[in-house]
Design brief:
Elements lengths: L11 H4 L16 E2 L3 E2 L7 H5 L3 H4 L9 H4 L1 E7 L2 E6 L10 H11 L4 E6 L2 E6 L2
Parallel strand pairs: 4-5
Antiparallel strand pairs: 1-2, 3-4, 5-6
Length: 127
């Protein structure tokens, strides 16, 4: 893993479901201190502990692709696929160049990319 940090990005705290906290996808976690991080970081549940943000994993990703800047959180789904979680407050994010960069790069490695934006779901497969 790279030496990157989340900084002021807390978008995963909004977009991802946390079953242990009954936190629905697309809603801010009650433990999130927006712009700062998790208010229960030391005691956060396994879903949060195990989450790996692609932007954090590789310092080669440009800073402007940080989730709070793109409106997109990217994560591994399984060994053959990844997921782009798009902020429903920014549905245009999935049509921006950053989203296409994510999709193109991910499809070089994974067979498919799932795109989640609120209730909308889509899948893109490797050509």
């Amino acid at each position: 893993m790279s030496e990157r940090t989340c900084g002021s990005c807390t978008l995963c705290c909004k977009l991802l479901r946390v079953t242990e906290l009954n936190k629905a996808e697309g809603r801010w976690c009650t433990h999130c201190v927006k712009g700062q991080g998790c208010g229960i970081y030391a005691d956060r549940p396994p879903s949060c502990r195990n989450f790996e943000c692609f932007w954090l994993m590789d310092a080669g990703f440009p800073d402007d692709m940080r989730p709070d800047r793109t409106g997109i959180v990217v994560m591994l789904h399984d060994e053959n696929s990844a997921v782009l979680h798009v902020d429903p407050a920014r549905p245009d994010a999935q049509r921006q160049p950053a989203a296409q960069e994510w999709i193109d790069g991910l499809l070089r490695v994974y067979e498919r990319v799932f795109i989640v934006c609120g209730p909308e779901r889509a899948m893109v497969k490797r050509p």
